[in-house]
Amino acid sequence: MGRKAKDRKRKDNPKKRREWIIQLYPYFKKNGLKDLRMDIIAQLLGKSKSTVYEYFATKEEIVAETIAYKLEALMGFDEILKNYTLDLETRYQQLMEYMIPVLTDISSILMVDIKEQFPQLWNHVESFYDYAGDALSEYYEEGMKKGTFRKVRPALLTLSDRFFFTELADPQFLKENHLKPEEAFREYFELKFRGLLL
To answer: Which CATH class is domain 75-196?
Structure first.
């Protein structure tokens, strides 16, 4: 019976798929993916399993759509970082202000489950990290060429950003250090820019 559901023709409705992912996401964020089954998904959506199978053939498709949903939000950083009408400091500040709510909406439990259970899909996350790292490197190099930033290896600067953004998504880190995301941003911004600017 499960095989027949998977073999049926899917409905091509990206809007509906995305609506369902947005509806499911709070559950994924809180509980991760370890015990996720199609009957749980159907129950969360208030639909029958057969209706869910009309849009998603497998749980993996649902996870792939979830990753796409979050990566699209994260990609908003690119437009900010490459807004050359703004000075370097303003761009970085706007980048951080944009990224904090997006990153804090991604739970560490969900990220770990994707990495462990769906390694092929995790490659999309790694590709995003690589792209973001390259974009930040170009930004730092721009600042050094303009004489605005100290000459530091861009790879070290992007590594510190990646570490900061990763930890910011971990509520345990924030709790243990008695930090709110906004406070973490302010302190990191001060540390980064007051130490980086000439």
So the answer is: mainly alpha
Nearest by Cα to 148 from 197, 113, 105, 190? 197
pLDDT mean by block of 10 residues, the chain; 198 residues: 53 91 96 92 95 94 95 94 94 88 86 92 92 93 91 90 80 82 81 68
Cβ atoms within 10 A of the Cβ of 54, count?
A: 17
The secondary structure of residue 36, as a DSSP letter, is: -
Residue partners of 52: CB distance under 8 A and separation at least 6:
38, 41, 42, 45
Structure tokens at 120: 């092929």
- Cα 120 from Cα 9, distance rounded (Å): 24
CATH number of 2-65: 1.10.10
pTM: 0.81
How far is the C-alpha of 112 from the C-alpha of 130, rounded, in Å? Answer: 18
Residue 150 parent element (H or E):
none
Give the helix, strand, coil percentages of the chain, each rounded to 5.
Answer: 75, 0, 25
**Domain locations in the chain?**
2-65, 75-196
